[in-house]
Specification:
By secondary structure, this protein is α+β, with helices and mostly antiparallel strands. Helices cover 25% and strands 24% of the residues. The protein has nine helices and 18 strands. It has helices spanning 83-101, 118-130, 136-140, 192-199, 218-225, 228-244, 256-272, 290-299, 416-425, and strands at 4-15, 18-29, 34-37, 71-74, 155-162, 167-174, 179-184, 206-207, 215-216, 249-254, 277-282, 303-308, 334-342, 345-352, 376-377, 380-381, 402-404, 410-413. The strands form four sheets. It has an eleven-stranded mixed sheet, sandwiched between helices. The termini are far apart.
Length: 434
């Protein structure tokens, strides 16, 4: 029997014409590390993928949601619910927490403990969404429809577009995070359905350099290493470090962009002696075998793979538990997002999984059969405006920043030193660039 401690609290306030009531139920369990969050708000919620944006529990980037060890429950209900309804909900949640705490948890002593940060995840997922934009002028000047909210004030140093392979990435500086941000776009050249079908048949066919017995799929490897993306990204990181010093580097991406982000993080540490590199991906497929995953987790320990509900892509290429050394294998650490409904009350669980990379109680515990769950994380859309297109839009006003190679691939580049001067002189805008 596991010891469980609990406490309850409630506070209320007003946001315009909307009355907000937040209810916290906190549980600490010695066998589980799961974060439950629900917002109790009067009125109807609107998803961020369409319609007006809802208010965040964390206002902007300055207020941070306090992290609790164990279970944290926050819920969305109407304020005029009867008191006994509250007690019933609390009782059900207690029972759920106790039963969840009894689940067998695997021990992986060789895997370092990586702490998941909810607020950081909601910021990085917006960068992973913005990199899908096809209007290069709006993206480069950070004025696109996805270039605000939690990422407002971001300054792009380099925007790289590989026309031949339909790939895109950017490098820039987030002053609020004191970090260099690298974001890779996911698959774009054809329909998501066809790309997912192709994942079933990708073979482990390439030995990763310098790692005996470590196998990866050549398509994932080449997308980062054998295109113009890698050169552009590394040059931008070098220039940023010359100006900003040893800023932390945060690498992110969704889907295929997540696979490229993983290879980039590994490349920065192994081949370029970068320190303080953090990788966070969303809906990433498996990219190598168990030997590769083991090497990766030791070399890039500060890595989080976020998976969502029944998202099909993290289940691919397939993992066969009866051939663990001969099949694809995820590296740790996974954070699985899933919803639990109790009548009209629905809340999101953010479960930190074990250090195996293939925790059977996380996303592997459900069928990976949803493309819809792949295209939206934390209420943020993660795809381009249209499929089956690699088209780009660019205003002649940014021609002075454009460098084109013989194959038509583009780089939009600016001097990071100019960005520093710009941000330091705009005190009327709180030091943020427009």
């Amino acid at each position: 029997m596991h010891e469980i401690e609990g406490k309850m609290g409630m506070f209320g306030g007003h946001l315009g014409n909307e009355e907000k009531v937040e209810f916290f139920f906190i549980l600490s369990s010695t066998s589980q590390n799961t974060r439950h969050s629900i917002l109790l708000r009067k009125g109807e919620d609107k998803r961020r993928s369409g319609g007006a944006r809802p208010h965040r529990t964390v206002a902007g980037k300055t207020r941070r949601l306090r992290r609790f060890r164990g279970f944290k429950l926050v819920g969305r209900v109407y304020q005029n619910m009867e008191e006994r309804a509250w007690l019933k909900v609390a009782l059900i949640l207690c029972l759920f927490a106790v039963s969840d705490g009894r689940a067998l948890k695997l021990k992986h002593e060789d895997s370092p403990v990586v702490h998941y940060n909810h607020t950081l995840a909601t910021i990085l997922v917006e960068y992973a969404s913005a990199v899908y934009m096809s209007d290069l002028t709006e993206l480069f000047t950070w004025t696109c429809s996805r270039c605000d909210d939690m990422t407002e004030g971001f300054e792009i140093i380099e925007l790289v577009v590989d026309i031949q392979h339909c790939l895109q990435a950017f490098v820039g500086v987030a002053q609020d995070l004191n970090a260099v941000i690298i974001a890779f776009r996911g698959t774009q050249e054809h329909s998501i359905q066809n790309w997912v079908e192709d994942l079933y048949w990708k073979q482990l066919d390439l030995n990763y350099p310098g790692m005996p017995d470590a196998m990866v799929h050549h398509g994932f490897y080449y997308a980062y290493h054998n295109t113009t993306i890698r050169t552009g990204v590394l040059n931008a990181v070098k220039r940023a470090r010359e100006i900003y010093g040893n800023f932390p580097i945060m690498v992110t991406g969704h889907s295929m962009g997540g696979a490229m982000a993983a290879f980039c993080g590994l490349d920065l540490i192994v081949n370029h002696e970068a320190e303080n590199v953090q990788v966070m991906t969303f809906g990433q497929p498996r990219i190598g075998n168990a030997v590769f995953a083991s090497h990766y987790s030791k070399l890039v320990p500060n890595t989080i793979r976020v998976t969502n509900e029944h998202d099909i892509v993290p289940h691919l290429p397939p993992y066969y538990s009866y051939f663990p050394q001969k099949t694809y294998h995820h590296f740790p650490r996974e954070v699985w997002l899933y919803n639990i409904g109790l009548g009209s009350l629905v809340y999101t669980v953010e479960k930190e999984c074990d250090g195996s990379g293939e925790d059977p109680s996380c996303s592997r515990s459900v069928a990976g059969n949803s493309i819809a769950d792949h295209l939206e994380y934390y209420g943020i859309i993660l795809h381009s405006e249209s499929w089956n297109s690699c088209r780009i839009v660019m205003d002649p006003l940014v021609n002075e920043y454009v460098v084109t190679d013989s194959n038509g691939n583009l780089r939009l580049s600016r001097d990071p030193a100019a960005s520093v001067i710009k941000m330091n002189t705009r005190s009327g805008n709180r030091g943020k660039s427009i």
